[in-house]
Amino acid sequence: MSKRRDAAPCPCGLPAAYRECCGRLHRGEARAATAEQLMRSRFSAFAVQDAAYLIESWHPATRPPSIDFEPGLRWERLDIVDTTEGTPFHTKGTVEFRASYSAKGGQAGELHEVSRFVRHDGVWVYLKAIVR
């Protein structure tokens, strides 16, 4: 990761530099403590195109063999709408979110989803989604 990206605000929307926020998870220096933190780190992984982290943080039963990023698509903003369970004391949880993006030619769009997360071998992983 470039030093410029490391010092930039984290794409997940929290008030911290990428290197101190989701970058720590992407580098394997920390694990997500909650389902929401994993959701934020996965959004950031899409924003910085970190396929390895996305695969690693996906449940083995539902994980795809690879990640293909759409050329020209930029993930720009994450808004957490709601969470259920998903704390350090739970084994499952959901995160409802809206993720804004821009595509080629500046076309704006939004993904509205409820993501399901579970603990697998003691670590939070993404299981599946219900797209809204």
Please give a structural write-up.
Belongs to the UPF0225 family. It holds the Pfam family YchJ_M-like. This is UPF0225 protein GCM10010411_32280. InterPro entries: NTF2-like_dom_sf, YchJ-like, YchJ-like_M. It is a single chain. This protein has 132 residues and is α+β, with helices and mostly antiparallel strands. It has helices spanning 3-7, 22-26, 35-48, 51-56; strands spanning 74-85, 92-102, 108-120, 123-131. It is built from 4 helices and 4 strands, in the order H-H-H-H-E-E-E-E. A hairpin with a 5-residue loop joins strand 2 (92-102) and strand 3. The N and C termini lie far apart (33 Å). It has a 4-stranded antiparallel beta sheet with strand order 1-2-3-4, with helices on one face.
Number of helices: 4
- Please summarize the sheet with the most strands: 4 strands, antiparallel
Assign the CATH class: Alpha Beta
Number-wise, the strands total 4
Radius of gyration of CA atoms, rounded to a whole number: 14 Å
Kindly identify the CATH topology.
Nuclear Transport Factor 2, Chain: A
Tell me the fraction of residues in β-strands, as a range: 25-35%
- Return the average pLDDT rounded to an integer: 94
Shape: globular
Strand and helix order = HHHHEEEE
Distance from N terminus to C terminus (CA atoms, Å) equals 33 Å
Structural class: alpha+beta
Percent helix:
10-25%
Kindly give the count of domains: 1
Second rung of CATH, namely the architecture: Roll
What strand order characterises the main sheet?
Answer: 1-2-3-4
Sequence stretches where pLDDT stays below 50 over 5 or more residues: none
